Predict the structure of GTPase.
Amino acid sequence: MPAPVRLVFVYNARAGLVAGALDSLHKLVSPATYPCSLCAVTYGLVRIDPRWRAWLATTAYDTVFHHRPDFRAAYPAFADLPLPAVLADRGDGPAVLLSADDLAAITTPEALIAAIEARLG
């Protein structure tokens, strides 16, 4: 039986209420320059996208979420990884599943879910 897969989602953003409010403002005022395509696809202006929430609630994958500062502290070997990113850890350490470039091309939660599932096979 293969090892369970842990998905590590890394937002190119800071955590916290003030950071979240500033991110929402940035998405509203200038969505084309917003630096976190993962945030843009999974969150609206004030809440998680219901389609994304439903997938997270039903997926068999273990999921972990990081913001830029805590990810770099937890995974120093990935300090230079362009963000956002989705990593997969099959028990032998994380590897990039979806890069920042991959995520930049994804515009809906459904497309993100399809990309994750396709890459995991």
